[in-house]
Design goal:
This protein is an all-alpha fold. It is built from ten helices and no strands.
């Protein structure tokens, strides 16, 4: 008697090939996270941008570096639940970057960096889609405390707002907070990176399982911790005419990021309980 073909069953573990593929977005996010965050002026010069609105560069770096740290943790964990939500965030970020690069190319005279980012984004999207297709494991039972879900919900709403606004309406968003918006792709890229956190947050609220929550929570700590430092630095330097960034957005982001970072650290310490 012929047996019906069985559906593919995905392993809970990442294969060696899958772990090697993850190194590409990890390294890319580390480089394009730390570079604009620490060497903002140099990064802007190499990218062919004006270097105005440096606070936005640092927010882009903070958000991007969060991907690198969390994916590296998932790489070491080597299980699919540890990276599933990170891969969804990475897919969102990559698609957003493709949009950003396409807009920059259509606007004319893009720098070589735009094409490099486009290639890396296409590769990252392909890797994320491959991993999501390869692994279709059943959802684990929810075990995350209600207060963690509330904090995650608030952070998710903020990430969606501050992701979509600069991604889709960078000029309006930037001028609303007093920025020059001369480097539009940076605003859009920062929005794309932040949007990844928002989409990931939606899936966190759907999952409610700590195995899937852990590394996204680490990712939130890194992003929000670095964003708070960048906000405090921007406010401190705002008194200098040579670095006269508006302080409205740094104050707003600083307060929100400090709150989310502390709550996320507490969630990690309590293992989501």
């Amino acid at each position: 008697m012929d047996q019906a073909p069985s559906l593919p069953v995905s392993s809970d573990r990442l294969s060696s090939t899958e772990r090697l593929l993850l190194l590409i977005p990890i390294i890319s996010a580390a480089v394009f996270g730390l570079f604009p965050y620490i060497l903002t002026g140099t990064f802007a010069s190499l990218a062919g941008f004006s270097g105005h609105d440096r606070y936005i560069y640092r927010l882009l770096g903070a958000a991007t570096f969060g991907y690198a740290v969390a994916l590296a943790g998932g790489f070491m964990d080597s299980t699919w639940p540890a990276v599933r939500l990170l891969v969804i965030a990475n897919l969102t970020f990559g698609l957003g970057l493709i949009y950003v690069c396409a807009r920059a190319i259509l606007a004319g005279n893009p720098s070589a960096l735009v094409y490099l980012v486009l290639v890396l984004a296409l590769i990252s999207v392909a890797i994320s889609a491959y991993l999501l297709y390869n692994h279709r494991t059943p959802a684990a039972p929810p075990d995350v405390a209600q207060w963690v879900l509330i904090i995650t919900g608030i952070a998710t709403v903020l990430a969606l707002i501050f992701g979509l606004a600069p991604l889709l309406a960078s000029g309006t968003f930037g001028r609303l907070f007093g920025y020059r918006v001369t480097d539009v792709p940076i605003f859009r890229a920062a929005g794309a990176a932040t949007l990844g956190y928002g989409v990931m947050g939606i899936f966190q609220l759907m999952s409610r399982n700590w195995r899937e929550f852990r590394w996204p929570t680490v990712m939130a700590v890194v992003f929000n911790g670095m964003a708070f430092v960048a906000s405090a630095y921007s406010i401190y330097r705002s008194a200098e005419n040579s670095y006269a960034d508006p302080i409205g957005l740094p104050v707003l982001v600083g307060l929100a990021s400090l709150t989310v970072a502390i709550a996320s650290l507490l969630a990690l310490q309590r293992n989501g309980k």
